[in-house]
Structures are given as C-alpha cells and as structure tokens.
Amino acid sequence: MTHNVAILGASGYTGAELVRLIATHPSLKIVGLSGNSKAGLHMAEVFPHLRHLDLPRLTTIDEMIFDDVEIVFCGLPHATSQQVIASLPQSVRVVDMSADFRLRDPADYEKWYGKPHAAPELQKTAVYGLTEFYRDQIKDARLVAGTGCNAATGQYALRPLIAAGAIDLDHIIIDLKAAVSGAGRALKENLLHAELSEGAHAYAVGGTHRHLGEFDQEFSAVAGRPVHVQFTPHLIPANRGILATTYVQGDASAIYDTLSVAYADEPFIKVLPMGQHPSIKHIRASNFCHIGVVADRVPGRVMVIAALDNLTKGSSGQALQNANLMLGLPETDGLMQAPVFP
Amino acid sequence: MTHNVAILGASGYTGAELVRLIATHPSLKIVGLSGNSKAGLHMAEVFPHLRHLDLPRLTTIDEMIFDDVEIVFCGLPHATSQQVIASLPQSVRVVDMSADFRLRDPADYEKWYGKPHAAPELQKTAVYGLTEFYRDQIKDARLVAGTGCNAATGQYALRPLIAAGAIDLDHIIIDLKAAVSGAGRALKENLLHAELSEGAHAYAVGGTHRHLGEFDQEFSAVAGRPVHVQFTPHLIPANRGILATTYVQGDASAIYDTLSVAYADEPFIKVLPMGQHPSIKHIRASNFCHIGVVADRVPGRVMVIAALDNLTKGSSGQALQNANLMLGLPETDGLMQAPVFP
Amino acid sequence: MTHNVAILGASGYTGAELVRLIATHPSLKIVGLSGNSKAGLHMAEVFPHLRHLDLPRLTTIDEMIFDDVEIVFCGLPHATSQQVIASLPQSVRVVDMSADFRLRDPADYEKWYGKPHAAPELQKTAVYGLTEFYRDQIKDARLVAGTGCNAATGQYALRPLIAAGAIDLDHIIIDLKAAVSGAGRALKENLLHAELSEGAHAYAVGGTHRHLGEFDQEFSAVAGRPVHVQFTPHLIPANRGILATTYVQGDASAIYDTLSVAYADEPFIKVLPMGQHPSIKHIRASNFCHIGVVADRVPGRVMVIAALDNLTKGSSGQALQNANLMLGLPETDGLMQAPVFP
Amino acid sequence: MTHNVAILGASGYTGAELVRLIATHPSLKIVGLSGNSKAGLHMAEVFPHLRHLDLPRLTTIDEMIFDDVEIVFCGLPHATSQQVIASLPQSVRVVDMSADFRLRDPADYEKWYGKPHAAPELQKTAVYGLTEFYRDQIKDARLVAGTGCNAATGQYALRPLIAAGAIDLDHIIIDLKAAVSGAGRALKENLLHAELSEGAHAYAVGGTHRHLGEFDQEFSAVAGRPVHVQFTPHLIPANRGILATTYVQGDASAIYDTLSVAYADEPFIKVLPMGQHPSIKHIRASNFCHIGVVADRVPGRVMVIAALDNLTKGSSGQALQNANLMLGLPETDGLMQAPVFP
Asked: Number of residue pairs across B and C with CB atoms under 8 Å?
C-alpha cells in the first residue's frame, strides 16, 4: 500500500534530505513539492543530486492539492510555518520541521522567538517530536513538532539521566559542536566557505540560543522542577553532524547503566561501550545517534558525549521516523541506510 | 532467496563501502569478512560507523570458510590479490576490486606494474568490470576485474565517442580531479589532513599513472587502432569524488547525441542537458555518474565532463552492480540510494 | 620616509589582504580606508583578524581626504571602479584591483563586460599590471590595472613560451583549479561552505570567462597574431590558491629552458627543477608563484603547471609590488613573507 | 648585529614554522638545520614552500657544528629531546619545543610520560616558557621549555583569574577544540584527510591528556593549593588553531576586568570587548591570542574563550618570542605578521 506525502519548503536542506530518504522508502510516494521562490522548476534544477528521481515539479503552496495527501512534511522557515500549517485542511496530518510548535507554553514561545504565536490553539495540540520519548502520542497526533537539532542531541545524552535523578541538576553544561548545514541554505557571510573553513567559534553564547527553550521545557518537565542548563554551541568547519559534549556530576557507572537501559531496545540510539565516545564522522548521513560515557580523573565528574547528523536524526530522519509511526509502518522504514564513511 | 557473500580485505575503504551498500541490499548476506591485520576484531572496532550491523567478526583469509559462499568480493592490495584469488576454491565466483586483473595482456601488466603477473592463466579468464560495456560477459564470468576509478570516469566520458568515431583520436586530454579516498587508507604523508586540506596538485604527471594502461587497452580496442590519451590526475581536498574534464575535438552536437543515445537506458549514467556540466557534490556516496557536454567558443573544440564517486560507482558500487548481474538479480539492487547532499 | 596610501573597498577580501601585507611594510602608512556599506566601523569590527593594528576608521569614499595620499589602492567591484577612479584627484596615483582597466580596447571591454566603458579616456592611460612584463611602464604610470587572478596564473605559465615561439599557438589548453576566495565575499549560494566543501566543478565553461579577454589581448599581442586559448576554470574546496595545468605542444627541454631564463632574476617566480610541479599548498598566503614543466609520455606533448595565491600574487600582493615600483621602493618590500604551511 | 641560530628537528611542522617566522626576522640567521631521517636534503625537498629561502642543507645532529650558534631551537620528539639537549655544549642556549622539560617535578614527569626523566638535573634548570608569565626568568635562562599548545591556550584564559581568586577553583572546565597540526606530521590513521575531514570527536577524555600535567603544575602554583581542572580536547577538521571554551564560576565583570588589566600591555594577547568572543579564523598563522568573556544567563556562570594558533603562539612563535627575550631583542621581532584571513 502506498501512502501519499507532500513536502512544503522542498528547496531547503531539510526538504532535500527528506526526498533523499523517501527515495528508498518502501511505501511513501511524494505527490507534492512546494518551494515558493522556485515554483515551476524541476527538483533537478534546484538540487541536481536528485536528478535520477521521478518527482513532481515544484509549485507554490497555494497551487498544491492536498486531497490525496496523508502526511505533509513542513520544512518552511520559522514563523511562516505556523501560518501555513494553520491553513492546511484538517484531513492531512502534519510533521513540522520548523521551530514553530516546539514550545508548549505561548509565553515561552514569545520569550524565545520575540513575538506572540500566530496559531496558539494549534500549538496546544502539537506533540513534541523526540520520537523515543513521545512515541505513543506521536502515533495518534495530527501535528508533530520536530525538535531542534541541537536540542535533540543534548536530550539524547541527558534526558534519561535527569529522569532517573542520576545527575546533579544544577551543574549541567552542554558544549556543542555543530556543522554548518544546521544553519540552512541561508546567504549569510559567516556561512561562506571562505569564512568558515579553517575556522571555529562559539555562537549564541551566554544562554541566548533558542534551543534552550526546548532544554528548559523538556528537562524541567522530566525533573519536576526548573532545570537551566548552561549551553554553548560552536560552529565547526564541517557540513553535517553535531557533537554534544556534556559535563555532568554523578556516578559514572550509574550514568552508564541508566543510558544503556533506556536505549537498549532503540533501533537508532547506540550506547558505546563504557569509556568510548563518538565522532560525527561515524553517524554521517544516517539516522543513528551514538552516545558515550567517560568518567573523569576526579570521581563524580562525568562526560556524556552524543553525536548525530543534524539533517537526518536531528531533522528530516526524525520527521520520517515520526511519519512512519503515524502511518502504522515499521519505524525504521527508509531509515536503515548505514552512515557514509569516509 | 538469500545469497551468501564474503569480503576479503574488509578493513579498507572499499571493503567498508561494500558493507555499507550491502547493508540495505534485499538479498545479499555477508557471511565472511577478512582483514589479516585486524583479524579477531569486530567491524565496529575497525569502522565504528558500521556499529549497528550484525556482522561476522574479522578473520584471516586462511580461517575463512567458503563452502556456502556464492560471491567473494576482493578488496585486497594490488599484487596480493592475484595470489589470493588464485587459491580460492573454484566454486566461488569473484569480484575483484584491485588492479590485478584489469589488463588482459601480461606484457601490459608487467609494463605498468613492474613485475610479471603471478596468475597469468587466471588473468586470461577475467572480464573487465565496466558494467555498461561488458554486461553480457559479466553475467557469466567467474572472475570480474573491477576497473580503476579514474579509468572508469574517463571511459564513461569518452568510450562511446571513440567507438562512434565522433572525436579526433590523436587529441584527447583527460584532466582529472580526484578526492583522496581513492588512495585508500594508506599512511602516507601527502594524505594527511594537514598536508592535503587547502592544497591541490597534480600527480603521476606525464603519463605514468597506471590507469593509463586501462585507457590504452580499452580505447585502442574500441577504436581498432592505438589510442594514447594525455592524462593528468590531480589530488583535491575532498574525500569522495572524481571529476574528469576531457578536452576533445569534434562536433559538439554529434558528441552530445552520441552520449545521449549510448546511455539512454542506463539506470546510473545520466547525461545532463546540453551545455550543463556536473559536480562531484551531486553524486556523492551514490552509484550515479553525471556527464555534461559543453562546446567551446572555438568551433570543433569540446569539453566532456564526467563525475562519479570513486568509492561507489568507481569501485564498490560497481562491484555490487556486477555481482547483481552475476547472480541474476536486478542490477540496481542495493544501489538506488540517492546522493548525499550537502 | 613614509608614503601615505589609502584603500578604497577595504571591506572586501582584497582590501583586507592588502592591509595584512602593508602591516609589516617598512614605509607605507595607511591613512584612509573606505567601505561604503561599513562606513563608521572600525576595521576590527569588519575583520577581527586585524584587531591589533592601529588603523583609520572606515569612511565613505566621499568623506575621504586625498590631500596627503600618494597611492590609492582600489578594491571596489567592477563597474563601480571606473566611475570612482575617474573622479579621483589627479594628484593621486592609482593601483586598481578591479577588472575595469585591464582591457585596452573599448570594444573588447564592451564584449566581455556587456556594456560600454564609462571612462574610455582613462582606460587608454592604464598600464596592465602584470609586474614582471610591464615593469618599466608601471614605474611611471598614474593608473595600473591589476590583472585577473586566473589571467595572471595562466600568463606566468605561458607568456614567455608564446613570446619565444616555443609552443604551438593553436593548441593551448588551460585547465585551472581555483579556490573560492577569488569570488570575493559575495553572498552566493554556491559559495556557501555546505555547497562547496566536498564539491568540485567547472564554471564558465566553453569560453565565457571574462579573464579570456585578458588572455586574448596579452597572448595575441605577444604572438603578433590572434591567439585563442581554450580555458576552463574549476572551483575546488579551498580558500586560497590557483593551480593552472596547461597543455601545450612543443619541445619539453626548450620550454623548460625558456621559462628558466625568463624568470631567472625574478624574486617571486620560481621555476622548479625539470619534471617537478607545484601545489597551491606551497605558495599559500605569499607572493610567490611556482612553475613546473613535465614532458608527457608522447613526445611533443608538455604540461606546464603554475601555482599562486589568488589574493596575494594574484591580486593584493601584485598591487603592492606595483606600488613599490611606482614609489621607487625595493620591489619586494612587505612581500617576502614565506608561504604558510601547513 | 646578527645572531646565529640552529634548529634541531627541522623536518617537522614546528621546525618549518620557525623557519617561516625567522625568514623575515631582522637579526636572526639560521646556520644549522637538522633532521636525521632527511639528512642531506635541501629544505625545499622536505618543505617546498620554503624554496625561495637560502638555507643550510639538513644534517644529522651529530654533524652539526655549534661553535657560532647562540640559540638552538629544538623541535625533536618527546623523550629524544632530553637526551639531545643534555649533550649540547654549555655554550649554546636552548629553546625546547618538546614536552620534555615542562614539568618541574620528576615524579610528575614520570606520572604523565610513563618513565623516569633522563636528564633530571637539567630539568631543574629549565624555565617554563609561557612568555607573559615567566618573562624575567626567560631572559636569563639557558634552557626554556616551550609549553604545550593546549596548555598555553587554557592558561591564557584562566591563569590571571586563578591568581586573582576571581573564580571558583573547584569548578573549572576546559572544553578545547584543536586543529590537527598540533599532532605533528605523524603518520596516524586518524590524521588522514579522509578520516578527519567532516569529522569531530573528543580525545584523551577523562583526564588522560598530558597537558593536564602542566595545568595542574601551573594552576596549583598560582593558586597556592591543588587545582585539578576538567579538560576535554576535541579534534576538529582544521589545520591550525585552538579554541578553548572554559566554563568558570565567578562575577563576569570582575573576570573581565582581571583579564583586561593582566593583558593591558601585552603585544600579543588581546582581550575582546565584553560579550564578544574569538574565532581561530582570526588568529591563524599569527602570534596573537584573542580572549573573550561572556556572562551566562544564570548569574555567576561565565564563559572565558581563548583562541590561538597552535603552531605559532602555541609553539614556534612562542619559541621565537622567548629567543628574542634571551637575546635582548625587541620581543616582537619577526612576530608582527597579521593573521591570514580568509
């Protein structure tokens, strides 16, 4: 049986990544692709690497017909998404990859995004899309809010530990190294090859990164009390991948055991043997997340390090995994491609 | 139905790439992996990106049992391959990815590789593995000799043109830009990141590159007279991909038409619209080859540019495509993964 | 004695490179920096790597006072330059780094740049800035037109050979690999790190690159007859450097001798031992140009390969070398910094 | 007046970097270069980027004549250095760039380097080469021990703060991102371009990195009590540069003021305006170190971020700065080259 899907915002990186993954999915069929600024073009003109695929031409969103569409993936920019999704017919289910529906509290949204939410009623119905922790709700959701890619990485490392009370909640540091495709295809000076290659620097330092809203929301909910992690993302000269080095306080063995148990049956989350730690090189272009635990020389200080691909497990792969759940398909359909190395 | 395969030399890049591709193949099962220097290790210890797969442990070649193996892929170093393959039981069919069986004439082999061939009788039986041009012979072969990755790229651009008499045989220049994984996992100073990144230089300049033996053999055979192209490979700071810019003399339209017709039904060879040309970025980690034709401002001068991934279409993807043929499977099984971009 | 200089367009890469070089020049002093879109800012805000220097604040061109300025370096965009330079006081001498004054024939300019020149009288007075071949005229020039960076690289490889009649004028191919900073700090999709890293492709294929106007003008003048080379530039994933692989027909030894003699006394042009060839890694961030000659396996076919840094010897270093000449200073002042490796 | 110097271990990256810097030094002259495995070669054969310099041929250490040499720079591998330096004539003064003399306590040396020191008497006389903090002792030293490049970066960020009691000594985390040239020219699999490019991972996690010996020694000495920082280095796909993100607890304004005052008169250490932070892109190939301070959203949590070039300020530039001091020369001689950008 074939399930028809459409992708809004298909001319961005998350849209292209989704097409790449769906290309070998056994039962999804792409029947609509929108890209307002590129409407009328073939995908091969926008993304020549998709040349071999038989895909519908890009249209505007207004031109798109949703009658036979079961799932709409939405890869539109923040703020635009909430308006577009609010206008979609109720018959379609939505997997959003923007930031618009991640924060449940409208006040939180306004605090982190600087203006009131345009679809607050819809926001209430959205399910947070961190698959492994919201599986049951995602299955039945009409609207799933894809997580921030940094927020996903940090949560995979820490969420089971906070839930289990295995670490000190007041001393959590997340030092994150992010590849550049997480910033999208935006024309910004600091994203130029000449500016980024051979460079490395922090950004949004001091607690201003919007993914902190997700950390605060989720970690506080899990802990049952406010948790405010210290989070510093860095841009590194690579295209794909996020490495989150987290510094926590607790018992290393207990931490390791907690993570091992939490992810024992997960198809995509792999806890490495104790003392080993991951590289973004080893999860590239895949839906896998590798997690390592290392004890410091000073007892009670522990590093938990997580790696995933921001475009796959951190965004489009997560979206497809959630869509599989929503459609009652095997969760791993289209997602078992091995990482690309070297 | 499942077909059992084994990979010799699985601790190199071509071995790892083959495992990556077979991981999502519908009917191949890896039952043996050899890597003499890494015997006893799990693949996850040698290639952590393959951690999620259930694979046999690495063994020595001597320990390997070939009873139930239908196809052996051989990713061993040059010179070693001919000895190992000569000792394999006759019951297994072999897809070699080394250089050992590419040249049909023992004198040619000795000229380009500097010593006599150790298995000249076996050499006579080998079929040259450029799938699109040796398809029928590959189906029935016991031993298929994978082509050089540079040799494949140049041939995809030029072979139909030489066969058709569409270009001047005495003025063919192949200026090739190769990513570094083609050199394998060898510990050489010039392959270090610090030496290669931000660098670019020619190598094997002046007609000394061994893949010239393949160009000479194949182009001369097709032309029915000796053809000696001028070939200069360059190393560029990238991991995967070969871009071959070929300079030929002929009629641009006739050249374009010849290539379009030659590859019209090929699943992996894509001729771009006239005047467009490819990037290695658009075929990365896939089995596709993109070819473009551009006329120069001076009539009669034409550029034919081809791009493929040296590890996939140039080596392990080609090997798998050939194995599919040998087993009577759909030629595209396990190979339709879209290129990874960005 | 100190010579006052000003830089127009100091917020681009060539402007910043010039500041870097002048920072250790023994007798030049920067008294004015313009950058219209960044007027009012400190250079440290635009280029944090220049933070340690005591520099004038950026102004608009209109605000700049030229009274005490001896030399104005002009790093403005094409087309803008001709208007600005035409309006400068006659008392200042000008080293232009744009394309506006490279072509002597107004018809050529219009052909390659698509519109009539706005300052044709000024154009007549400009001296082509390829230092080693226009030294005497540069010394006395009021306006020196910096060459195209690709045009410089190709000319260093071929100009003495054409002048000496050492190569066949009808079979000259220049296959050029260029790093990305040659495209400037422009916000273009193909210059993004995510698009360029791990990529390589040709551009302006077929004879449309504007630097062909310079090749045609200069090579034809030297040859005394029209010469139309075949020129294909490629973009490679590096920040600095141009490698020009040229394919010519002639006697390899004669070619080598011609180049060796031509550059014997040049401080910045180094001809490598016969058979060796250069890497852009070995001239990076310096004013040196390395040239190699290699004979092909087929007698009469020869490769001449040249490498230089597009921002230094290909642009700002050339400009400073020319300014030194104009001011009667040692030509190497401020330019003897060794290449940065690795 | 000219000062003669020699470089032992000139075929490694720190040796080559030193030659690059000395090439434009006003009064140092290189009279000897050793490289045992490359003895007999010209530097241009080992490092083609130094082709334009008139340098002595490489010799073995045994062949080197030290009679007229004032300063010997030693870029030999660890363990080798202590034996070689112990055998040098007393007449020469030594700037060591290895790890051999960094730790004052022989027990510390044995703990971190796994065997007893071979020259413990010499070790006692060595001065730790962190120029800004050991200036007076360096001036008169016979043997200066160059610091670890990571150790230098962390100390520039934190040392004044520990000395001033401005931060909590029990909660200091140093998350460091290091480019690959710090690992030298060693032929190791993880240093290959194919393995490192598009990768990022931690190493020596958990308190095993040898530079911790320096942190412990220096920070404890400054604090007057044991200080054991938590230190995690990461390898990123770049060639030059170290970015140290340090997480400390204290008052952000006091921290900023302490650093500003400490480095107010330093020619190479630049404290950025409050709230700004550095990039390795902006200090590349220079002797500058940029430091930024940012307050976290939670009062009392502060990030201090430092960037320097491991080969220059972290090694060879530091060595030259120390040699200048030892010779009574201006400390900045040969070191004022601006960073290379882009």
From this structure: 155
